[in-house]
Amino acid sequence: MNKVLFAAALMLAGPATFAQKSEIFAPKGKAIKGYDVVSFFKDAKPVEGADSLTYHYKDADWLFSSRANLEAFKAAPDMYIPQYGGYCAYGTSEGHKAPTEAETWTIVDEKLYFNYNMKVKNNWSKTREEFIEKADIQWPLIKDKQ
Question: Rounded to whole angstroms, how far apart are CA atoms 86 and 97?
Fold first, then answer.
C-alpha cells in the first residue's frame, strides 16, 4: 500500500478511530485487544487472554492465557510489550498512531511488532528495517499524543 492510499484510508476511518492518546493500544482498556502478548513469543501465534488472568500495567489491562504467561510478563514486562505500544509499526514510522490486528504480528530481534492490517504488514515487511528506524525516531514524539 503506498503512502497516499494509507493516508486516504486513515482519513476515511475518521478521527475517533485513530485519536489514540494512550501509550498502549488498548481498546476498551484491554491491551492489544485482550491478546496474550507472551503467547506471540512462546506459542508463535495470537492467543486470546482470559479476563481472570489480568494484570494492570501502563494504564491498560493485559490479559493472559495462562498463569505462567502472566507471571512471565510480570517478571519482565518490557520484554513482552509490543514496540510502539502495539500501535501500527508502519503508521508510527509515518508519525501517527493507528490501530492493529493480532494476525499482523512479527517478531524482529526479539521485539514484537504489529501492523494495521495484512496489506500494510506486507508493505512494511518489504523494507522493515527502514520502517523500524523511522518509527524508533517518531515514537518518542507521538507516544503521549492523540
Answer: 9
